[in-house]
């Protein structure tokens, strides 16, 4: 329900928030490319060096798909929002801030699988799971907040859609927690499998890919 006129918060259009967010996502994806390992040029060994850099390619593909799906969901979410206030801006900044950390664990994980020991790989997947879990957690507040402040949402939005959206970040927090445990106490490849699963899950449930998904 909208606030009373004497307590009406300062509201603004979504265009600047969307433009800033799109810019952040573009920079994140650019930074991911920089994390791809540049092989040493040893005469006659370039082809081998390029093949041995496969962890960098896999890490990039995984992170690119993940960030791309997050951007699609962000775009779809803001199609349903017609006004923003200060708390919503802060929540959005928190989500972008955590998402912008993704290139760091992506590069660490690629280096660990290219030239690290098994213990290094365990530490790397735990780091990736921790950052990805925190990123999921950063988006948790936005849906309850919009559900409580429905005057920020387009009148065409279904009443229960914001509450339903909460499932994705909750699933992310839980799954990345399991991935961290599996990668540390089991084998790092178990964590990688869960990372791939989460990319597929977010793609399958994405509002940006399948708008009919609740």
Please provide a written account of the structure.
The chain is elongated. It has ten helices and no strands. The model has no long low-confidence stretch (mean pLDDT 85). Helix 1 (15-34) runs parallel beside helix 4 (86-99), helix 4 (86-99) runs antiparallel to helix 6 (118-138) and helix 9 runs antiparallel to helix 10. Helix content is 70%, strand content 0%. The longest helix has 25 residues, at 54-78. The protein is mostly helical and 214 residues long. It has one domain (11-204).
Quick structural gist:
It is built from 10 helices and no strands. The chain has about 210 residues and is mostly helical. α1 packs parallel to α5 and α4 runs antiparallel to α6.
DSSP helix fraction: 55-70%
Number of strands: 0
Average pLDDT, rounded to a whole number, is 85
Q: Could you say how many structural domains there are in total?
A: 1
Number of helices: 10
**β content, as a range?**
under 5%
The string of secondary-structure elements, in order, is: HHHHHHHHHH
Q: How far apart, in Å, are the first and last alpha carbons?
A: 22 Å
């Amino acid at each position: 329900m909208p606030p009373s006129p004497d307590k009406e918060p300062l509201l603004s259009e979504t265009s600047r928030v969307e433009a800033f967010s799109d810019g952040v996502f573009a920079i994140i994806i650019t930074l991911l490319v920089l994390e791809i390992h540049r092989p040493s040029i040893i005469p006659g060994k370039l082809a081998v060096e390029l093949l041995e850099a496969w962890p960098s390619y896999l890490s990039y593909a995984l992170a690119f798909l993940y960030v791309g799906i997050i951007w699609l969901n962000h775009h779809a979410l803001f199609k349903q929002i017609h006004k923003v206030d200060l708390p919503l801006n802060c929540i959005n900044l928190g989500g972008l801030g955590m998402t912008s950390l993704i290139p760091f664990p992506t590069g660490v994980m690629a280096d660990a699988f290219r030239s690290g020991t098994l213990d290094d790989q365990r530490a790397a997947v735990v780091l990736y799971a921790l950052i990805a879990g925190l990123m999921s957690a950063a988006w948790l507040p936005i849906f309850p907040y919009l559900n409580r402040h429905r005057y920020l949402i387009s009148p065409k939005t279904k009443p229960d859609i914001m509450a339903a959206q909460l499932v994705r970040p909750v699933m992310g927090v839980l799954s990345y927690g399991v991935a961290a445990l599996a990668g540390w106490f089991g084998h790092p490849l178990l964590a990688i499998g869960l990372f791939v699963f989460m990319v597929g899950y977010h793609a399958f449930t994405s509002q940006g890919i399948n708008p009919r998904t609740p």
